[in-house]
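Bumping my old thread because nobody answered last time. Still need a sequence for this structure:
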């Protein structure tokens, strides 16, 4: 089964910090992170969000005038590190 996670990108780090503060205030578990390699962005900070809450989070951003660049759904790869590959061979 393929697992996914969603990341929201921003035009600036300032917007990502405002986003984090507002959503944590509302009880969301938000984690800021570097933008994944699969995604290009004008800002190097992204927020990992639950995919199933994407629409609710976008509504909050619109309501609070928080500028968002894009939302990306990313496949989570559970790759083994070199040591785990060595042990399984």
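Sorry it took so long. Here it is:
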């Amino acid at each position: 089964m393929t697992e996914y996670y969603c990341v929201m990108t921003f035009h600036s780090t300032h917007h990502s910090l405002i986003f984090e503060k507002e959503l944590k205030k509302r009880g969301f578990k938000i984690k800021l992170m570097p933008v994944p390699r699969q995604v290009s962005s004008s800002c190097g900070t992204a927020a990992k969000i639950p995919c199933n809450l994407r629409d609710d989070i976008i509504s909050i951003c619109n309501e609070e005038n928080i500028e968002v660049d894009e939302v990306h759904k990313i496949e989570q790869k559970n790759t083994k590190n070199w040591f785990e590959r060595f042990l399984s061979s």
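The chain has one domain: 3-88. Let me know if any region looks off to you.
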